[in-house]
């Protein structure tokens, strides 16, 4: 009987692993992909999708079924629902199906955890926290609010905040007041890219307000939002777009497999990306967030996990997971420029635009559907 590999999460990590396995084991494996969403979401372009008219839904959302249907019908199953419990000793997971809220217990031979991380603010559209309909609604609603607002605050000056502020500045820098609220005295946590990114934002008329850590934000019935800063100051704006904080989607995993950091409960893995203390359970991407949460890191980890799952199924030893050869950190700043580095080498603004900001990687979506990514 074909062995069963269950993959939890149908995003950049999970779909990559599914393709890598199914491409080679179309006949002798059953891959069950569990996803909260019916669609694959290219979240890297969400920062531009909130600018009305810039990105079509179908460019960044594609049905997961269209990715899997190229393999034998008996080799895969797509379950739309959420993993709610996991028993690594008994080798099973519990999934609540979106269609009817029923619970299904699924046994596995190998399990891959790829449920990533969500935005700390539930209303933020940068990651898919709920269903496909939820995230589409959130993106459309944000785009409509952006259109109507005269003054916009972007809360948080990490890479998502820089990119959101850049997109807004590029489109509306001359017609709307755009302010980036930065918790400390330097954006991007003081990364060496920070001065170049700040300079690009200034060119787009984005005001950066330092030492402005957002403590809370409340929208009033008249539509205005009151933002309270950690220093007690209260600001009122037409729209506040929060970009701070990621929360690993690990609530269904027993606590003993998770990091002790109560604010960031990632799953603990060894050098093979096997979950520490568990057998036949692997993890990749933002659920691991090591060395950090990032797309290239997720891709590399997904490839390693697929290889180690294959090895485990064949009774071979796993191999140590490899990361990207060099740490690339790049922020698009609007549709014309950017700031970034490769290792410690600064990248020119034009180069970042060419490699990232021009399309925000939307062309890569095709590879996740036709499987060429893996
Ligand atoms: C705006 C933005 C821009 C970015 N740009 C870059 C960049 O330029 N370069 C870079 O390196 N990285 C970038 N990143 C980071 C990159 O998006 C992540 O590293 C990547 O998405 C991680 O993929 P993942 O598959 O691990 O998890 P996620 O993309 O977080 O996906 C997890 C999936 O699992 C689903 N899920 C959650 N809980 C459950 C459950 N219980 N059961 C079933 N399914 C579940 C979720 O709905 C989601 O579909 C960016 C991130 C953001 C937010």
Automatic annotation (TrEMBL):
InterPro entries: FAD/NAD-bd_sf, FAD/NAD-binding_dom. Residues 4-291 form the FAD/NAD(P)-binding domain. Keywords: FAD, Flavoprotein, Oxidoreductase. GO terms for cellular component: cytoplasm. GO terms for molecular function: electron-transferring-flavoprotein dehydrogenase activity; flavin adenine dinucleotide binding. Gene3D superfamilies: 3.50.50.100. Belongs to the FAD-dependent oxidoreductase family. PANTHER family: APOPTOSIS-INDUCING FACTOR 1, FERROPTOSIS SUPPRESSOR PROTEIN 1. This is FAD/NAD(P)-binding domain-containing protein.
């Amino acid at each position: 009987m074909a062995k069963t590999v269950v993959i939890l999460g149908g995003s950049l990590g999970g779909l990559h692993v599914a393709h890598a396995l199914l491409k080679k084991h179309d006949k002798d494996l059953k891959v069950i992909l569990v996803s909260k969403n019916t669609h694959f979401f290219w979240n890297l372009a969400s920062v531009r999708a909130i600018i009305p008219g810039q990105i079509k839904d179908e460019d960044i959302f594609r049905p997961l079924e269209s990715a899997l249907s190229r393999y034998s019908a008996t080799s895969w199953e797509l379950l739309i629902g959420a993993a709610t419990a996991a028993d690594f000793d008994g080798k099973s997971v519990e999934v609540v199906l979106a269609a009817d809220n029923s619970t299904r217990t699924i046994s596995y031979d190998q399990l891959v955890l790829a449920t990533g991380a969500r935005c700390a603010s539930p209303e933020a559209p940068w990651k898919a926290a709920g269903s496909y309909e939820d995230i589409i609604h959130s993106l459309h609603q944000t785009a409509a609010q952006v259109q109507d607002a005269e003054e916009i605050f972007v809360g948080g000056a990490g890479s998502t905040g820089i990119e959101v502020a850049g997109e807004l500045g590029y489109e509306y820098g001359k017609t709307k007041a755009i302010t980036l609220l930065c918790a400390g005295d330097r954006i991007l946590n003081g990364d060496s890219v920070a001065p170049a990114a700040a300079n690009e934002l200034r060119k787009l008329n984005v005001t950066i307000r330092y030492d402005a850590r957002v403590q809370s934000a409340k929208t009033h019935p008249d539509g205005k939002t009151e933002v309270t800063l950690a220093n007690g100051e209260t600001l009122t704006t037409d729209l506040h777009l929060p970009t701070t904080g990621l929360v690993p989607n690990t609530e269904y995993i027993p606590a003993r497999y998770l990091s002790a950091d109560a604010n960031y409960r990632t799953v603990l893995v060894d050098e093979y990306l096997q979950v520490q203390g568990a057998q036949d359970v692997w993890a990749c991407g933002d659920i691991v967030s090591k060395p950090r949460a990032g797309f290239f890191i997720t891709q590399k980890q997904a490839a390693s996990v697929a290889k180690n799952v294959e090895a485990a199924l064949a009774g071979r030893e796993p191999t140590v997971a490899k990361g990207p050869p060099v740490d690339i950190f790049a922020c698009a700043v609007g549709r014309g420029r950017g700031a970034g580095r490769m290792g410690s080498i600064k990248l020119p603004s034009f180069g970042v635009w060419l490699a990232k900001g021009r399309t925000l990687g939307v062309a890569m979506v095709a590879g996740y559907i036709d499987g060429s990514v893996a």
